[in-house]
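Renewal narrative, Specific Aim 1. Our central claim is that a sequence can be written position by position from structural information alone. The example that follows is taken directly from our test logs and has not been curated for this report. It begins with the structure tokens describing the chain, in the order in which they were read.
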């Protein structure tokens, strides 16, 4: 073989380098920076190089009021944004909204006394912090909190405001704001106004927030010497139409959550910022009644690094139905601009655009905004200035200021924003509203969480979902109120089972997803880990209370205990209380329970309550009371007690019945029995996975 001399090698090197440069231009070099680009590059949180020092951030951006939020479903984040806008427009405060997980807290003591810190904190589950507030909560409530300076008291300089979001059907109602407030006071911080509490369980969250904030602003203005001015809408985001781009341009986001998904290179970790586009392996109907649907779905996670444990939750990322997207576009006179490409740019340095751009009006409305959620009174008041005529403006102002009038006209019908605007204006178009107002005023479309109904030991790569499709008639409203995610799942199930034109109660969805990336029946998901867990010792007895879809996690629990029994392990007594309307209509997984019975033998018993089969309605709490003696005996053997389902009625009544069982069987007062139940909760012997 001929030898290459030095000149040949140099020439070859130059040719290779030139070839590589040609094929990598625009990817690794020569990249034109989009002046409107935002930070959704990888979908995994904080950008490299961004400061975690809150004082640095406030100083460099000229802020004197920071609103921290701890949010799981987006409501606390929405309230934080609303406080920021109101503080700036009414009082001239230089406000910024901050995710608690984006900053360190050891220099809270160095925040000057002429600056304000607000905390808007949701309580999740059984008194737990939201995912993004875990580190902050552990820090601020810790025994030995260490701050950057040696002041005594440590937070003597800190002036703060606090509002909590909770649910009174849970034992630890609003525990986040209560515990954080207590910790801050202990550290010497000075609260301004009352620590507000909103109650989702009573359905009064929005009005609780509105009733709290006005006295809070008055107290803050007096304490800090603020002067109120006439509130005028000032946009936080600028909208720029991109004439050089179309919806077919490869750099335009059509609903993809981040750049990896846009480029088709999505990889883990998959989480609340970055979903996995999972295939649905199987889907079927569980009910045998015409006007109600309950779905069973198997989501395949084998192509991802996602893992789950029995008792965890799966998050489904829904899309808005086409009918609601069209109504929204129509009422704003945006139908002709549906596919117009726009960029959204933050007009102040601490604001974060909540989705990637450039994108289209359609993609924002379909994939990123909660356009189907009930509209807030405060937001209607904000939009009054942009009403199409004076009569509509006066009506909007009245709705924004009169809570009883608002309830009668809007909230009792669960109207979303497009419906509300159409009703108030009698169909006249709202073409004067800046689109930025909706990006700022509507919550980001949130994932919906479902209790996983399978065992990770039995099927580690497939996650089961059990979900009733929400299609609810409301008195006074012409059409039923339909759940966004469950009707989306119903349409996916119809498509998978051969329906060429899937239509969930009249709703159609973009089932194929942006650029057909969900083709083949896929759904975006991630997993949220839960503390709702079986005892580590399978010989411990368990008592499971799960009416309706509350049985979902218990299917996984029983599935797992049956598998352990097949493997020869000693599995303790398993009592499952299940309730539904009628055996022949909505008895979920009826044949499966028989299979689990074969594996577990007499150690498994299912006690049923069919509420509409007899002359009197019978529920799981009634069946629980009938087994009073056995329940007490199992609890004396340290049985674990689990409840899943409706928080407002069933779970509360089960709690009451359990205390009665203990009182009657142990000869103690109900007060003493309630104390025992409370201690069971504290030690995780009594666990709940409940919802409103």
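The sequence written for that structure reads:
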């Amino acid at each position: 073989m001929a030898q290459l001399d030095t000149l040949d090698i140099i020439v070859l090197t130059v040719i290779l380098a030139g070839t590589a440069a040609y094929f990598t231009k625009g990817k690794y070099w020569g990249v034109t920076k989009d002046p409107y680009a935002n930070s959704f590059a990888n979908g995994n949180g904080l950008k490299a190089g961004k400061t975690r020092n809150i004082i640095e951030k406030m100083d460099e951006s000229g802020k004197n009021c920071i609103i921290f939020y701890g949010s799981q479903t987006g409501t606390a984040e929405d309230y934080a944004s609303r406080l920021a806008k109101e503080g700036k427009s009414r009082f001239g405060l230089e406000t910024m909204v901050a995710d608690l997980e984006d900053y360190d807290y050891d220099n809270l003591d160095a925040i000057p006394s002429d600056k304000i810190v607000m905390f808007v904190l949701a309580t999740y589950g059984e008194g737990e912090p939201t995912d993004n507030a875990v580190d902050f909560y552990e820090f601020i409530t810790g025994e030995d909190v260490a701050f950057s300076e040696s002041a005594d008291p440590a937070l003597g300089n800190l002036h703060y405001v606090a509002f909590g979001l909770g649910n009174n059907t849970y034992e630890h109602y609003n525990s986040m704001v209560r515990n954080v407030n207590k910790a801050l006071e202990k550290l010497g911080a000075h609260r301004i106004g009352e620590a507000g509490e909103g109650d989702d369980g009573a359905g009064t969250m929005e009005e609780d927030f509105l009733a709290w904030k006005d006295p809070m602003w008055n107290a803050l203005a007096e304490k800090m010497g603020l002067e109120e001015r006439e509130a005028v809408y000032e946009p936080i985001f600028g909208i720029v139409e991109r004439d050089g781009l179309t919806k077919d341009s490869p750099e335009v986001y059509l609903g993809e959550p981040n750049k990896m998904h846009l480029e088709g290179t999505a990889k883990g970790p998959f989480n609340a910022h970055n979903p996995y586009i999972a295939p649905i392996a199987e889907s079927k109907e569980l009910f045998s009644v015409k006007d109600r649907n309950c779905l069973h779905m198997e989501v395949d996670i084998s192509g991802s690094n996602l893992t789950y444990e029995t008792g965890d939750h799966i998050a489904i990322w829904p899309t808005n139905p086409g009918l609601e997207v069209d109504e929204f576009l129509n009422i704003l006179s945006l139908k002709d601009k549906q596919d117009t490409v726009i960029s959204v740019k933050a007009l102040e340095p601490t604001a974060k655009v909540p989705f990637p751009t450039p994108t289209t009006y359609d993609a924002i409305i379909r994939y990123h905004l909660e356009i189907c959620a009930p509209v807030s009174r405060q937001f209607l008041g904000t939009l009054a200035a942009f009403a199409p005529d004076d009569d509509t403006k006066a009506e909007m102002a009245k709705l924004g200021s009169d809570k009883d009038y608002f309830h009668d006209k809007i909230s009792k019908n669960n109207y979303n924003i497009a419906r509300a605007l159409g009703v108030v204006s009698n169909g006249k178009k709202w073409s004067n509203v800046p689109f930025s107002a909706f990006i700022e005023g509507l919550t980001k479309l949130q994932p919906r969480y479902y209790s996983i109904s399978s065992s990770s030991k039995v099927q580690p790569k497939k996650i089961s979902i059990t979900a009733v499709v929400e299609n609810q008639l409301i008195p006074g409203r012409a059409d039923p109120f339909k759940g966004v995610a469950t009707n989306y799942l119903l349409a996916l199930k119809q498509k998978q089972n051969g329906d060429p034109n899937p239509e969930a109660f009249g709703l159609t969805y973009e089932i194929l997803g942006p650029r057909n990336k969900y083709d083949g029946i896929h759904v975006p998901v991630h997993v949220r880990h839960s503390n709702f867990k079986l005892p580590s010792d399978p010989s411990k007895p368990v008592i499971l209370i799960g009416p309706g879809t509350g049985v979902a996690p218990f299917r996984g629990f029983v599935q797992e205990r049956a598998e352990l029994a097949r493997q020869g392990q000693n599995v303790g007594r398993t009592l499952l209380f299940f309730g539904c309307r009628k055996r022949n209509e909505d008895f979920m997984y009826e044949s499966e329970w028989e299979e689990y019975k074969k594996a577990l033998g007499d150690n498994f018993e299912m006690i049923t309550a069919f509420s509409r089969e007899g002359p009197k309605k019978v529920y799981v709490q009634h069946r629980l009371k009938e087994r009073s003696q056995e329940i007490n005996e199992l609890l004396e053997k340290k049985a674990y007690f689990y409840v899943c389902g409706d928080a407002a009625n069933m779970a509360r009544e089960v709690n009451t019945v359990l205390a009665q069982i203990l009182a009657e069987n142990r000869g103690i007062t109900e007060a003493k029995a309630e104390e025992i139940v409370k201690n069971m909760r504290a030690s995780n012997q009594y666990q709940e996975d409940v919802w409103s």
